[in-house]
Design a protein that fits this description.
There is one protein chain. This protein is an alpha/beta fold. It has a domain at about 175-285. The protein is built from 12 helices and 8 strands. Strands 2-5-6-7-8 form a 5-stranded mixed sheet, with helices on one face. Strand 5 (about 200-205) and strand 6 form a beta hairpin. Helix 1 (about 30-40) crosses helix 2 and helix 4 (about 75-95) runs antiparallel to helix 5 (about 100-120). The protein is globular. The two termini are about 35 Å apart.
Amino acid sequence: MPPRSALASTADGRYPVGVPDLVNGFSWSRSRDNLFQECRRKYYYHYYGSWGGWEPDADAEVRRLYVLKQLSSRQQWAGKLVHEGIELLLRALRSGSPLPETWLITEIVKRMRREWKASHHRRYWDDPKGGALFEHEYSITVSDETWQQLRDHLARCLRNFYRLDLLSDIRQTPLDRWILIEEIRAFNFEGTPVYGAPDFGYWTSADRLALVDWKTGGGNGEMSAFQLGIYALYAQEVLGAEPARVDLFEVNLREPTVRAIPWDEAKLSEVMDRLRLSIRSMKAWLRDPSLNLAVMEDFEKTEELRLCKWCNFRAVCRPELDLGGGPAQLPPSTSTGQADRGRPNLPRGGGAGEAGARTGLGCRANNRRSSAFSVGADPY
């Protein structure tokens, strides 16, 4: 469903009289398909159990599921920030005010520090959209070095973006041939709203539509091709571009590499078949597909406990698993601050000069302060 934030609200965040309640209608997206394949119970919590958790008078358990739904891993979080930085740059280019590389990296790292600070204090229990890290909710200790590697990875991705030949091509393209995707818009696929829009698009000098997807980590070739295939459907249904005129590109900013995805009518037909199967499978688990009515008991838990370790809903779904994490319970208040134990020190600077940056995946207890992460007298 589209976010309610698109509707007008009063100063206190409540929605004015006359605004109809949102309806949890069925729709399809690639992330929804991924969750369904991973674990049926996780899928239920995310799309049904948490519904309405944004309301001030929401049931406590529904609110809890809604907040946990917002959690992201540090790798996902870094990817989100990179995407935000690229969008900021492209909007600036469109307005005729290009952003210097060092300035952009510094600004996005500042945003990183602000969001890390809010997450560390678990302020997402009051403001779920303000930044919520899985590592903080489940008390996973992460070394200063690992956080620094994540910062360096973010800076490297943005730095690589500035050096892409593709960006040079975009800069040389007249602005009226840009397709800057303002928001994820749905298109109708055989009666089902499908959410799937590319990160960017533009009409090339050869009068072909180039659709681009930014990546910040390793990808699955088959899954990426399917996702880009959905973008081709988007182009056909929303932009009116026939598949024969569409070029699909996956840009890996970590490497950096630009990979063209071969495309034709036959591949589009395969994507449509796969999309039909996914939609049919999801609806088969509903008590009443016409009402999008789901009952939790119908959605079994996965038996692959390795997946549970990194599940947002771990504390709700499998509290019997002692994985060393936090309780994931509603705190009495998050506005008074918390003890500042073991916090990693995210840097003030953009780190544009670091070489050989890596995304550190290892975690270990480490409470020391590193001079490279000094934040002065500004405690998180």
